[in-house]
C-alpha cells in the first residue's frame, strides 16, 4: 500500500470518527432538550383515517437539493385520507442481493388528491410525496428503485398536527428533512385561510427544502442556515421575537407553533410558545419496526410511572404537545 493511499485512509477514518462524535453530541443535546418537554396531546377531535396497505407505483424519483431525493407515489386512498403530519411505512425491495427486513418510516411531505377524468381527458391518481436522505442500507437500496416500479406502503399512520377552531396564524419550523414533517400543516393552513410563516433551517442555503412548496402555498419563508449563523438557537429566537413584535396586524404572534426537527429546536419552539402564550405541537422522529404500535419499540420521551408503559411515537404521536416544564 502506498503512503498516499494510507494517508487517504487515515484522513477518511478521522473524518468518520469526527462525524460520529458530533452525532453523539447532537443526540445527547436533543435528549436533554426533550427531557420534561413532551406530553401526549388531548383526545383527537375526530377519528383518524384507517391505514391501508397499498402497492404504489413510483411516478417520480429524483434528486432534490444537495442531499435528498424526492419520491412521488400513486396512492389515491392515502392521498385522500392522510392528515397533516402523519407518516407512512415504506417497504424497501431487495437490492443487489441485500434484503432489507424492516420498513422505513417517512413523513408525508405533500398530498395531492386524485383528479377525475373525462372522455376527452384522462384523470390522474392521488399522490403522496416523500423526501429522504441516503443515510444507510435501507435508503441506499430505496434510491435504486426506478420510476414505474411499485413499493408497498402502509399508511397513513400516527397522530398529526391539528389547528384549533378560530386559528388565524401559525408559525411552522422545520430543519433538514424535518421540513417535510410540517409541510402538510402548511397545506392545511392554506386551505383554511390561516396566515403562515415557515422557518426553513439547514446547514447551507443549497440544502434547504420546501422553497417551491411554500411559494405555491402562499407561505412566508424565513431562512436560517448554519453557514451565516442565522440558525443558531439564540439568534433564531431573537429574530422570531422581533418578527412577531405586534407592531402591525401581520406581525402579531402566531396562534400556534408547529415544529419538526432536532430536540433543541422543539425546546426553542416551546420557549417561544411560552413567551407568546400559545400552544406548541412538536413532531418527533424515532426508529420504528412496524409503525402501528405492535412492536412497542419507539417509546416517546414522556415521563411516566415506572410501572406503566409509556406512550409510543408511532401511535400516540409523532405529534405531541411541547411545554416548558414548570419547576
What is this structure, in a nutshell?
With 327 residues, the chain is α/β, with parallel strands linked by helices. It contains eight helices and 14 strands.
List keywords for this structure.
327 residues, alpha/beta, Elongation Factor Tu (Ef-tu), domain 3, Rossmann fold, 2 domains, 7-stranded mixed sheet, 8 helices, globular
Task: Give a written overview of the molecule.
The protein has 327 residues and is α/β, with parallel strands linked by helices. It has 2 domains: 52-157, Translation factors (Elongation Factor Tu (Ef-tu), domain 3, Beta Barrel); 161-283, Rossmann fold (3-Layer(aba) Sandwich), CATH 3.40.50.80. 29% of the residues lie in helices and 25% in strands. The chain has 8 helices and 14 strands. It has helices spanning 3-34, 76-81, 137-143, 179-192, 211-217, 233-243, 263-276, 313-316, and strands spanning 38-39, 52-64, 68-74, 87-91, 104-107, 110-112, 127-133, 150-157, 169-175, 195-202, 220-225, 256-260, 280-283, 319-322. Strands 1-14-13-12-9-10-11 form a 7-stranded mixed sheet, sandwiched between helices. Strands 5-4-8-2-3-7-6 form a 7-stranded antiparallel sheet. Helix 1 (3-34) runs parallel beside helix 7 (263-276) and helix 6 (233-243) runs parallel beside helix 7. The chain is globular. It starts with a helix and ends in a 5-residue tail after the last strand. The mean pLDDT is 90.
Helical amount: 25-40%
Order of helices and strands: HEEEHEEEEHEEHEHEHEHEHE
CATH superfamily label of the largest domain? Nucleotide-binding domain of ferredoxin-NADP reductase (FNR) module
Give the strand order, joined by hyphens, for the main sheet. Answer: 1-14-13-12-9-10-11
Radius of gyration: 21 Å
Low-confidence parts: none
In DSSP terms (H or I, runs of 4 or more residues), the helix count works out at 8
Q: Report the principal-axis shape.
A: globular
Number of domains: 2
* Percent range for β-strand residues: 25-35%
**Average residue pLDDT:** 90
| CATH class value of the largest domain | Alpha Beta
CATH architecture of the largest domain: 3-Layer(aba) Sandwich
How many strands, which pairing sense, and closed or not: the largest β-sheet? 7 strands, mixed
Distance between the termini: 60 Å
The CATH topology of the largest domain turns out to be: Rossmann fold
Counting DSSP E segments of at least 2 residues, the number of strands comes to: 14
Amino acid at each position: 500500500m502506498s503512503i498516499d493511499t494510507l494517508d487517504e485512509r487515515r484522513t477518511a477514518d478521522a473524518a468518520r470518527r469526527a462525524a460520529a462524535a458530533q452525532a453523539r453530541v447532537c443526540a445527547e443535546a436533543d435528549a436533554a432538550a426533550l427531557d420534561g418537554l413532551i406530553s401526549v396531546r388531548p383526545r383527537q377531535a375526530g377519528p383518524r383515517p384507517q391505514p391501508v396497505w397499498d402497492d404504489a407505483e413510483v411516478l417520480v424519483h429524483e434528486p432534490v437539493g444537495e442531499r435528498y431525493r424526492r419520491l412521488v407515489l400513486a396512492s389515491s386512498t392515502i392521498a385522500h385520507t392522510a392528515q397533516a403530519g402523519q407518516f407512512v411505512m415504506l417497504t424497501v425491495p431487495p437490492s443487489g442481493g441485500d434484503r432489507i427486513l424492516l420498513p422505513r418510516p417517512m413523513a408525508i411531505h405533500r398530498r395531492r388528491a386524485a383528479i377525475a377524468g373525462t372522455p376527452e381527458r384522462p384523470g390522474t391518481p392521488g399522490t403522496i410525496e416523500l423526501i429522504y436522505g441516503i443515510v444507510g442500507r435501507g435508503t441506499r437500496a430505496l434510491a435504486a428503485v426506478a420510476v414505474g416500479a411499485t413499493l408497498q406502503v402502509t399508511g397513513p399512520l400516527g397522530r398529526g398536527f391539528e389547528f384549533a377552531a378560530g386559528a388565524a396564524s401559525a408559525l411552522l419550523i422545520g430543519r433538514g428533512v424535518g421540513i417535510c414533517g410540517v409541510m402538510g400543516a402548511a397545506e392545511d393552513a392554506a386551505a383554511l385561510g390561516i396566515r403562515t410563516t415557515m422557518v426553513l433551517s439547514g446547514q447551507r442555503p443549497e440544502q434547504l427544502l420546501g422553497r417551491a412548496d411554500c411559494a405555491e402555498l402562499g407561505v412566508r419563508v424565513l431562512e436560517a442556515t448554519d453557514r451565516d449563523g442565522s440558525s443558531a438557537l439564540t439568534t433564531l429566537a431573537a429574530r422570531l421575537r422581533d418578527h412577531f413584535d405586534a407592531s402591525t396586524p401581520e406581525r402579531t404572534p402566531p396562534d400556534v407553533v408547529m415544529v419538526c426537527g432536532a430536540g433543541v429546536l422543539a425546546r426553542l419552539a416551546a420557549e417561544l410558545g411560552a413567551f407568546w402564550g400559545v400552544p406548541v405541537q412538536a413532531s418527533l422522529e424515532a426508529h420504528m419496526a412496524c409503525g402501528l404500535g405492535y412492536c412497542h419499540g419507539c417509546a416517546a420521551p414522556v415521563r411516566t410511572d415506572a410501572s406503566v408503559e409509556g406512550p409510543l411515537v408511532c401511535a400516540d404521536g409523532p405529534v405531541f404537545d411541547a411545554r416548558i416544564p414548570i419547576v
